[in-house]
Phosphatase PAP2 family protein
Amino acid sequence: MKALFEYISHRDINILRIINNSWKCKFLDIVMPAMTYLGSFTFMFIFCTFAFLLSNALLHVMAIRAMVSITISTGIGKLLKISVTRLRPFIDIPNLNIKKIGIDKYSFPSGHTTGAFSLAVIVALYFPIFGFISIPLACCVGISRMYIGVHYPTDVIVGAFLGITCSFLTYRFF
């Protein structure tokens, strides 16, 4: 079991270095920090509030379910963060290109990715044609978190899984 965790950790660091160092360019230095904010609570709150206030009944229901999914997934993510206490990669790995953007010291799972997928999947479930936009944008949020050096790939993968799962459960049972 220890060997498996070491293998995953090694792969995690290698993938992070590829995204964080090898992809580095001026264009992504501008786009990725902006992209990461699509997974912020502020963006999701504004999006859901705007959708809720529109007179379309389906948008109203979608906005409520999105907020429920985001709240549940964020709560679970916070519990995992304080339970696992995995330090952010820029603390442990030298020579990362980082942009610290108001973060705590723990990285697992990625809260921005969790929120982005919670919202993206709910949007896709209610309006499938917009899934072709919302899901790739959520993926970009996850990639941006690695690009700016604040999350490992496994943080992002678990965040995406958490957001997707909570969205499907909220859509099905709420």
Observations:
- DSSP finds eight helices and no strands in the chain.
- The mean pLDDT is 91.
- Residues 17 and 30 are 19 Å apart (CA to CA).
- Residues 26-173 form one domain.
